[in-house]
């Protein structure tokens, strides 16, 4: 089984914000297959499905970004998953809007959602898909920037990165993550 986790914040208030780009990828994937995410016992919205014989679980933690690990750890235990079975999708200030980067491990880079996952899962070694949201052009505080919608200029690039990210997730269902990294990081 593989688990694809999109990070974000629950509620309409945050739905179209930069911080919710992980949720947007999960919505894109679910939409491709007409899958419905439902509230689960792991404090998230999820669905467990199968594609070409590969079981895949899509998850949107409903704990708010900074507590994402509180949803992921119990789910991993229940389904007896290892960190290698998980792909976490999240926003990255250090990448320009529309760029994506896949990695097999790393630190939290100041991202509180990733920090929570590392703390709860107990390792830095899990697959990640970072989606660029860029940095604020002004003196706007980062916390305000990530909780605002994408600018008009960013929207086309971000839409493209959401589609490309969903494509990478589909590829991971069929290939080793290292191959997917080579295909999508070029």
TrEMBL record:
Query: What chemistry does it catalyse, as a reaction equation?
Result: an N-acyl-L-alpha-aminoacyl-tRNA + H2O = an N-acyl-L-amino acid + a tRNA + H(+)
- InterPro entries tied to this protein: Pept_tRNA_hydro, Pept_tRNA_hydro_CS, Pept_tRNA_hydro_sf
Coiled coil region boundaries: none
Subcellular location(s) per record: Cytoplasm
Please indicate which superkingdom the organism of origin belongs to: Bacteria
What GO terms fall under cellular component here? cytoplasm
| EC annotation from Swiss-Prot or TrEMBL | 3.1.1.29
Q: Which UniProt keywords apply?
A: Cytoplasm, Hydrolase, RNA-binding, tRNA-binding
Task: Quote the function comment for this protein.
Answer: Hydrolyzes ribosome-free peptidyl-tRNAs (with 1 or more amino acids incorporated), which drop off the ribosome during protein synthesis, or as a result of ribosome stalling. Catalyzes the release of premature peptidyl moieties from peptidyl-tRNA molecules trapped in stalled 50S ribosomal subunits, and thus maintains levels of free tRNAs and 50S ribosomes.
Name of this chain's protein: Peptidyl-tRNA hydrolase
Q: Which organism is it from?
A: Lentibacillus kapialis
Q: Which gene encodes it?
A: pth
